[in-house]
Amino acid sequence: MLFSSTTLVLLVLFGLIFRATFYWILPVAPGEPVGIADVLELFIYFTILGMAGLNILLGLLMLVIPAWRDVRLAIISLIVSVVMPPLYFILHALVPRLM
C-alpha cells in the first residue's frame, strides 16, 4: 500500500516535470491539432487515474479485510488517492515552461 501511494505521488511529480520541460520540445506535425506530447500527457493522466483507482480499491480492502487491517495507512492511502488526480489536473496547466 505504501509503495502504491508513493508511486502515485511520484507519477504526479513526473507528469508535472514532463509538462514543465519536454512537453514544449516535442514537435507537432504541420496540420495536426495535437502532437505526441499531448498524447503522452493524456497517457500520464490516465495512468494517474488508474493508479488512484487501484489505490482506492486497495485502501478499501485494507479497511474491510481483518488480516490486512491497518486503518491509519488505509486512510492516508485513500486521501492521497482522492487528492492527487485533481491536484495534477489543476497544477499541470499552471506549471511554468522551463525549457
Structure report:
- By secondary structure, the chain is an all-alpha fold.
- The protein contains three helices and no strands.
- It has helices spanning 2-20, 36-64, 71-91.
- Helix 1 runs antiparallel to helix 2 and helix 2 (36-64) packs antiparallel against helix 3.
- The longest helix is centred in the middle third of the chain and has 29 residues, at 36-64.
- The protein starts with a helix and ends in an 8-residue tail after the last helix.
- The mean pLDDT is 93.
In terms of per-residue confidence, which ranges show pLDDT below 50 for 5 or more consecutive residues? none
Mean pLDDT over the full residue set: 93
Q: From the alpha-carbon coordinates, what is the Rg to the nearest angstrom?
A: 16 Å
Sheet with the most strands, sense and barrel status: none
**Fraction in helix:** 55-70%
What is the percentage of strand-forming residues?
Answer: under 5%
User: What distance separates the N and C termini?
Assistant: 35 Å
Shape: elongated
Structural class: mainly alpha
Tally of DSSP helical segments: 3
Give the H and E element order.
HHH
State the total count of DSSP E strands: 0
